[in-house]
Amino acid sequence: MRPTGWFQVAWSADVLVGEVVRLHYFDTELIAYRGSTGEVHVLDAYCEHLGAHLGHGGTVRGDHIVCPFHGWEWDRNGRNVRIPYQERPNRARRIRAWPVTERNEAVFLWHDTSNRDPLYEVPDIFALFGDDADAGQYYRAHPECVLLRERLPVHPQYVIENGVDFAHFVFVHRASEMPRFTRQDFDEWRFHADFEMTFRPSRTSAAAGDGEVVHGGTQACNVGISLGFSRSWGTGTMRSMIGVTPVDENTSDIRSTTWLERLPGDRGDAIPAELTRRVRIANNQFLADVNIWAHQRYTEPPGLATEEARGFRQVRRWARRFYPPGEPGSGAAEQDAGVTG
Q: Which Gene3D superfamilies does this one have (predicted)?
């Protein structure tokens, strides 16, 4: 799987100043490090001298990475800047450096098989939904409100297809009724899907007095095919980010990050005990989707019910721009032949 876009490869807290972190994405060994300037850099993992892996014993010096084998020093752009036993560096060899951006407590890598510069930006989740919010109104997400599921056989496009799949909310997320979509539109790099729905307590919960009817809604914005952002309201306001990043041709890592709105007057970082139930609910909803995705086969063209055909057709046509020719998902066929009912 080689789609184009920004992909989450770590949380910010995973890459401390002076540390070297090993990564493996897009069938490529990588290293991430945070230099003395505080910025995170991602390079291919192998030294261009004799091929030592910089993630096994490599060290950070200032804003550079130093090879453990012979001490060759490489800058953030992958250029050799120092050879300890020679006056001049080797200017002919260069390690591939990847475009990186950091926001929303996360580190993102730009991947494009055509080696184009980034075509769009990763949005600030607090500025995305036009409600004048800022990060200070929410508790930190890491470490209490993050989840990682590694090397699952998951197609990265599943996240955005959730945005048109109205029926799954009843069967996967136990909504009491189908959601009512209030917005579904596309621009060049983003897909918006807003909806409202109702959750009613189960008979068991209602009989025990442990349930309430919750009417809520979600504003969702998918940026590329790999990043899903949402603002949800109901029992409280929360924001979430889901990232699906290909590891190789068959598997992906999936990350979930959730921010809960602060209780009045609370300026602490940690999630208070009275909100832990919301964290558990948010995590369970994410894991319910993951349980389906991890055992799902990407089907093209799919067999669709009449009511859902238009949404799936639109999202798959839009998604084609993020794939090289011939990649799964790049040639989504016309769906009409697959419609039933």
A: Naphthalene 1,2-dioxygenase Alpha Subunit, Chain A, domain 1 (3.90.380.10), Rieske [2Fe-2S] iron-sulphur domain (2.102.10.10)
